[in-house]
Write a structure and sequence with these properties.
By secondary structure, this protein is of the alpha+beta class. It contains four helices and seven strands, in the order H-H-H-E-E-E-E-E-E-E-H.
């Protein structure tokens, strides 16, 4: 499916760039842009989106909090690791999209840390102008996650971690 979406996106891009505007109507020309953005959205959904149901195919623990996020890599030359950040009773984990037809798993765990290993968290800029979540670990390390509208999710995250408000930064 991803390959088909890539080809469709390439064809739409070629039509928009190389077809003279006087060959088709203005409405049809500009609707190609809308179609191109829709195909790009579908490609993003098929490539990166991880839902809570996908995580349930791998781990049947109760999810206390979840948010679509991108883990900021240690080196700035690398790309974000996109997936779903989830909080369970005892750990925080990042799951990435991974289709495995033999086992039926739809996601895989790519990062995790025990809640006991957290010393706190803060909300702010994590990379460039992107805001998100900064987890401070007991050993002095940090884990940064780009999450849209994280300021609105602070209280649910604190509730999921079992913190009453005195432990976050």
């Amino acid at each position: 499916m991803k390959a088909l979406l890539k080809i469709l996106l390439l064809v739409l891009f070629a039509i928009v760039i190389f077809m003279p505007m006087n060959k088709i109507t203005q409405g049809a020309y500009w609707s190609l842009f809308l179609l191109m953005f829709f195909v790009l959205y579908l490609y993003y959904r098929f490539s990166y989106w991880v839902g809570e149901g996908d995580i349930a195919s791998v781990d049947n623990r109760e999810i206390r909090f979840s948010a679509f996020s991108g883990k900021v890599p240690p080196m700035s030359s690398e790309d974000l690791v996109r997936g779903r950040l989830v909080v369970f009773d005892d750990e925080i984990a990042l799951y990435q999209r991974s289709r495995n037809p033999q086992t039926g798993e739809k996601a895989k765990k790519v990062w995790s840390v025990a809640i006991d290993d957290l010393s706190g968290f803060s909300i702010g800029k994590v990379i460039g102008i992107r805001g998100g979540l900064i987890l401070s670990l007991v050993d002095g390390d940090e884990a940064r996650f780009a999450i849209f509208f994280m300021k609105n999710k602070k209280i649910p995250l604190m509730d999921a971690l079992g913190w009453s408000g005195g432990q976050s930064e």
